[in-house]
Amino acid sequence: GRILELGRIVDAKLTLEHLSDDDFVPFGLVSEDVKWRIDSTTVRVSGPAAEPRQLAVDADLQASGIVVGNIKADTVAFKAGLKTGEMKLESLSIGSVTNAFSVSGHVAMPESWAQMASAAPQLKWTLKAPALEAFFANAPHVTGQLNGEGMVALDKGKLSGATASIDGSALKVLGVPMNSVKAEITTDADEVQVKSFRLQLDDHNTAEVSGSLNLAGSQRANLNWQIACNDLAMLAKSEGLKHLALPVRGGLKAEGTFD
């Protein structure tokens, strides 16, 4: 690459292939809990380095065999670019066997890097995971199927809006089996809106929540909840709930408001 006009103008390209954590073993810069491999990456930069709106950047990354602690990703793909004053995250995809988590987004660039804190990025995400256990390297903390989508928007470094919608089935979380879970939640800097949340532990026991939670000022909440445990014996037999010493017969129904 080239750096022109005393460092003001950049014209450079970086390419890496077949680089992994094993290459850093001789330098002692590795961790037993972290594994990674960069199959290929290319970064191209051209334009005035100090002017984000005039700079052009293209970045592409393909990686595999990522392990961080007990979390793993078989593949990671990243593609982003900066052109005509807008940075676009075209795709960030994290996959494990049949699962896929992807993120895309964009942000209008300020006139200088010092003004980046005032930028307003927006991100969208989707999750399609028919087998959550595939995201774990060893004993999984969560198993089952989970799909979801949502968005996150920031303004001047603060959350300006976010949405999340999830739909799961045949789940087991920390040993507790769940037939299904569905939720739709929105939030901004001031309030969380739980439009719907329904948890079905089995065919006879469910819980539902809806309402809002104020994140500013007096921290007021307005949450409606409902529990229908028609078969407590089913809960008592659950492998993940045996330590709670639940009643072994009967049922329980309750509802209320948290305000």
Which strand order spans the largest sheet, edge to edge or round the barrel?
1-2-3-4-5-6-7-8-9-10-11-12-13-14-15
Which whole number gives the mean pLDDT? 88
Uncertain segments? none
Major sheet attributes:
15 strands, antiparallel
> What's the helix count?
1
Q: What general outline do the C-alpha atoms trace?
A: flat
Please state roughly what percent of the residues sit in beta strands, choosing from under 5%, 5-15%, 15-25%, 25-35%, 35-45% or over 45%: over 45%
CA gyration radius, whole angstroms: 24 Å
Question: SSE order in H/E notation?
Answer: EEEEEEEEEEEEEEHE
The quaternary structure here is: single chain
State the secondary-structure class: mainly beta
Proportion of residues in helical segments: under 10%
| Ends distance | 62 Å
Number of strands: 15
Explain the layout of strands and helices:
Layout: E1 2-4, E2 9-20, E3 34-48, E4 56-68, E5 71-83, E6 86-96, E7 99-108, E8 122-129, E9 142-155, E10 158-173, E11 176-187, E12 191-200, E13 205-214, E14 221-229, H1 232-237, E15 252-258
Antiparallel strand pairs: 1-2, 2-3, 3-4, 4-5, 5-6, 6-7, 7-8, 8-9, 9-10, 10-11, 11-12, 12-13, 13-14, 14-15
